[in-house]
Specification:
Blueprint: E1 7-11, H1 16-27, E2 31-36, E3 55-59, E4 72-75, H2 82-87, H3 89-110, E5 113-119, H4 146-166, E6 170-175, E7 178-179, H5 190-199, E8 204-207, E9 213-215, E10 217-218, H6 219-230, E11 239-241, E12 246-248, H7 249-260, E13 266-269, H8 284-290, H9 298-312
The structure holds nicotinamide-adenine-dinucleotide and uridine-5'-diphosphate.
Uridine-5'-diphosphate binds next to helix 5 and strand 8.
């Protein structure tokens, strides 16, 4: 690895995506500083790294300034699941605004390159489909999702303003629904909910009629997209990183039931307010500028994720149908 980019700060490093990034860079021999306040992350995700001399863990909340010397900042700190980010909506806004200002201040002082983990949520309940980066979005500024959606939008604004005003070296990635090992059992997002429910033969909770769509990216594909964007010269983004394979939530439920061999039924719960109807990334920019596209089909990624949750739940074999 190039010595000039050897010191990597990963905020939100004990979370689902952040912990995979920590693994990636420790394996590359980089010096990794993982910063997390453990709101939705867990020490279990990074426990195996704690004795590695290339890895350093700092319990810290990014709404407060941080003084460390680094070359690259992957800024992921922010709860991503709707139940987590709505738990304390004001704190979610603070994390996105004050946290991003603090990390941009750090990047400016150290002349580090900084990448923001933004979200497909900046497109809101999109009226353009699939969503290209040029689409400005359709976001409710005063709803229960706004703390996150508008939080990410203002975080993107801050990134661009630091870039224009201070020449800060920035990268903006809009991440679409990503799943895989190390999602928390109680994360609340759809893939982990369905797998955990299916493995326990409990009803799968489909919100609404399940006709709403999402596009699911496997975690290792996402990590390679983030790293490719960080090391791309002369392109700030924003760039969409996601898997354009689009599935209805009902299709996902049926796939999970089939792959786990579960006896679970499907229950319909109320659709949350402002739940986007369709979501699918246009990844032509990532393909052209980064030479990146996802490699993992949904079934393959689901199988790996099912194995992970079987281990976490202490189930050695999946609950097969008896009849
Ligand atoms: P996650 O909730 O598992 O991880 C977020 C991490 O940030 C957690 O470890 C949490 O404890 C930490 N954190 C939260 N607030 C913090 C604060 N104020 N100070 C320090 N640490 C804090 O979620 P994830 O899926 O790993 O998402 C990581 C990032 O990627 C988030 O910024 C999220 O918005 C973005 N993203 C993820 C997805 C996805 O599908 N996974 C999609 C779009 C965007
Ligand atoms: N969803 C669902 N059952 C669940 C959790 C989520 O039907 O147990 C739906 C949710 O309403 C949304 C989709 O699945 O339409 C994706 O939800 P998630 O919270 O994973 O992500 P986001 O809404 O942020 O895309």
């Amino acid at each position: 690895m190039d010595r000039k980019m050897n010191r990597i700060l990963i905020t939100g490093g004990a979370g689902f995506l952040g912990s995979h990034l920590c693994d990636y860079f420790v394996n590359k021999g980089a010096d990794v500083i993982c910063v997390d306040n453990f709101f939705s992350g867990s020490k279990d995700n990074i426990r195996h790294l704690l004795t590695d001399h290339h890895f350093e863990l700092i319990r810290h909340d990014v709404i407060h300034p941080l003084f460390v010397e680094v070359d690259r900042v992957y800024h992921l700190a922010c709860p991503a699941s709707p139940i987590h980010y709505q738990h304390n909506a004001i704190k979610t806004v603070k994390t996105n605004v004050m946290g991003t200002i603090n990390m941009l201040g750090l990047a400016k002082r150290t002349e580090a390159r900084i990448l923001l983990a933004s979200s497909s949520e900046v497109y809101g309940d999109a009226q353009v489909h699939p969503q290209p980066e040029t689409y400005w979005g359709h976001v409710n500024p005063i709803g229960p999702r706004s703390c996150y959606d508008e939080g990410k939008r203002v975080a993107e604004t801050l990134m661009m303003d630091y870039h224009r005003q201070n020449k800060t070296d920035i990268k903006i990635v809009r991440i679409f629904n990503t799943y895989g090992p190390r999602m928390a059992v109680d994360d609340g997002r759809v893939v982990s909910n369905f797998i955990v429910q299916a493995l326990q033969n409990k009803p799968l909770t489909v919100y609404g009629d399940g006709s709403q769509t999402r596009s699911f990216c496997y975690v290792t594909d996402l990590i390679s997209g983030l790293v490719a964007m960080m090391e791309q010269e002369d392109f700030t983004g924003p760039v969409n990183i996601g898997n354009p394979g689009e599935f209805s939530i009902m299709e996902l439920a049926q796939k999970v039931i089939a792959l786990t061999g579960s006896t679970s039924e499907i229950n319909h719960n109320p659709l949350p307010q402002d739940d986007p109807v369709h979501r699918c990334p246009d990844i032509s920019s990532a393909q052209k500028k980064l030479g990146w596209k996802p490699q993992t089909p949904l079934e393959e990624g689901l199988k790996k994720t099912i194995v992970y949750f079987q281990e976490v739940l202490g189930l050695t074999t999946s609950p097969k149908r008896t009849s």
